[in-house]
């Protein structure tokens, strides 16, 4: 135990010399707690350097990271990434998840090696798109659902980064990305931001994976720029509603009212979260706490509330048919597509599959039994297996074009 503690202490002492720096104005305090040896450290990172102290000061931390000594040493040696450790439930974090996940990206690995991942703000016009990048290989973008962030794809990013360079994005208005108060939130606006992110990262062509609203955005990217897309995997995608009984009310209520200060209440947020799943025993309660905390923190922002309500409104009001309707447009989708539906999805019922099959008969379809609206969280192994097999079939159709220009 003494030898292990000494190795851990040395790993912390070396952090300042490994620090890669940060943008002007950056100032974040991390508390790292290693439960198995009963010790903690405080790491404060600013634009000019990093400082480490054993124990914790009275300064309120921005992030608390908890793990064990062995995992911490593996992280510092680059044997495992923080997202992989989280996926294996060997690490937890509370506070700002962008800061938590981005922590390891602030430090070089031994021998001057770059970190295994980084969280960076990608400039897209007047926007900053918060992006997690990890892995090596053809490029793949992961797009989250309404009210979620890129953290909903951590398990998927960990699995697919073994073969792909994965970029998990916070769409504009969500997570750590910009939240403009005058943006025309909806699939076309978000799709432009996704394409702009690809441009900024020098990505000529990429696979897309989208859940719920992110699935609708992925479809829009495929419709507008099929030349930039390899394959598209859609997990419970928010396709257009055929019946819209509350259309008149949704049109009447303006999302700008969301700019007024209000709270949904933690209990309601928790109830909404758990309602997304068919079998709550398959979801780690600690993950639920992290997600609820993150939503509650972000929703305090007026821009986040506007983005949430405007995006929900755009999804519900999108016309299903007609000259500019969703399904006639869907029939022109060129990239190979996989639709993954869930038998117990209350938001996008599996019956939506029949409309998609009618208008896009070339697409593949899979129904996950005993699953709710977020397959990559509730059934990660099954979902990741489906994604790996689908993209393995698509890669030979243009894999070489998926790498950076």
UniProtKB/TrEMBL annotation:
- Keyword tags: Hydrolase
**Claim: Plastid is one of the keywords in the record:** no
Q: Gene3D superfamilies this protein is in?
A: alpha/beta hydrolase (3.40.50.1820), SCP2 sterol-binding domain (3.30.1050.10)
InterPro entries from the xrefs?
A: AB_hydrolase_1, AB_hydrolase_fold, Epox_hydrolase-like, SCP2_sterol-bd_dom, SCP2_sterol-bd_dom_sf
GO molecular-function term, one example from the UniProt record: hydrolase activity
- All copies of domain AB hydrolase-1, residue ranges: 138-380
Domain SCP2 stretches: 27-107
Q: Does the keyword Hydrolase apply?
A: yes
Q: What is the name of the protein in this document?
A: Alpha/beta fold hydrolase
Lineage, highest ranks first: Bacteria, Bacillati, Actinomycetota, Thermoleophilia, Solirubrobacterales
